[in-house]
Write a structure and sequence with these properties.
- The complex is a heterodimer of chains A (about 60) and B (about 140).
- Helices cover about 85% and strands about 0% of the residues of chain A.
- Chain A contains two helices and no strands.
- Chain A is flat, with a radius of gyration of 14 Å.
- Helix content of chain B is about 60%, strand content about 0%.
- Chain B is built from six helices and no strands.
- The chains are: A mainly alpha (about 60), B mainly alpha (about 140).
- At the A-B interface, helix 1 of A face helix 3 and helix 6 of B.
């Protein structure tokens, strides 16, 4: 079975699962873990947009 | 006097003594992602780790990601192997089943390879976390 993901969807899936592991392993309380996981996810996805716009500017 | 226990005092025990659990939990967590946490009765954390690492690994394989072998020769291949082997049992299962051998040279296969390596690296972090929980450094 082959999974076909676009660059963006692959980045979001990667961010989702990686953020879960980071949240669980890097913080102690459940609340801290959820907040850290959400922050990581936002940083990953935000980073995709920032990198995308940077590449668009470089290409021009 | 440096290096000697002062009179009337006993030598202090280590703050986090190494127990059997602190050895078994990370090893179990390495072989089966999340199992170290489940062994330590952190069921929700263990299940989430298991789902996340399994998903990363199998999505990577589904994207025709490559599984590195120990005798790659190239330094980057060796680093890729170190990342892959972090997935423990999943890596050995993939080698036994001959998965990750697709000769696909496209962007998706490159992402797939990265997913598999990162799944292994995340499992190393999860195993270290299980070790810290077993030691009592983390609740």
């Amino acid at each position: 079975m082959t999974i076909a993901l676009t660059h963006f969807s692959a980045a979001v899936v990667f961010a989702f699962f990686t953020s879960i592991v980071f949240g669980i392993t890097q913080k102690n309380s459940t609340r801290e873990q959820v907040i850290y996981g959400l922050r990581c996810f936002a940083m990953f996805v935000g980073g995709v947009f920032v990198a995308g716009w940077l590449m668009w500017l470089i290409r021009r | 006097m440096p290096g000697k226990v002062a009179a009337g005092k006993t030598a202090s025990a280590p703050e986090y003594p190494l127990t059997n659990e602190a050895i078994i939990a990370p090893l179990l967590g390495w072989v089966i992602p999340g199992a170290g946490h489940i062994y330590l009765k952190r069921y929700v954390r263990g299940l989430l780790l298991l789902i996340s690492i399994f998903a990363m690994f199998f999505i990577g394989l589904g994207m025709n990601g490559r599984i590195y072998k120990p005798n790659g020769g190239d330094i980057l291949d060796i680093l890729g192997f170190v990342g892959d082997v972090g997935a423990g049992g999943l890596y050995f299962l993939a080698r036994m089943m001959d998965w990750g051998n697709a000769l696909a040279a496209n962007a998706a296969a490159d992402y797939g390879k990265t997913f598999i390596i990162v799944a292994g690296l995340l499992n190393f972090i999860a195993a270290a976390d299980a070790h810290h929980i077993a030691l009592g450094k983390k609740p």
